[in-house]
Amino acid sequence: MKEYVVFLLQMMIWSSFSLVEWLSGRDRPLFRGMLLCMFLYLAFLLARKVGMRTKKALWTTCFTAIIYFSCQHFVWEFI
What we know:
The chain is an all-alpha fold. It is 87% helix and 0% strand. Helix 1 (2-23) packs antiparallel against helix 2, helix 1 (2-23) packs across helix 3 (54-78) and helix 2 crosses helix 3. The radius of gyration is 13 Å and the shape is globular.
């Protein structure tokens, strides 16, 4: 059950990342990369706060990021 809650919360984090990235459209790629790292760390900390172990929190964070960005890629490809 923890994994499902973390998955949903992290999807909200990734949605807010997309909004922030859209708002900072003129930033250099270095700063966008730093923004991505910051949101990755925030998602990882959220998973740890819910009570997941470190390794499982890391895997869940990577999994949700991969799912979100691959789905985002497919949506923008068809639009």
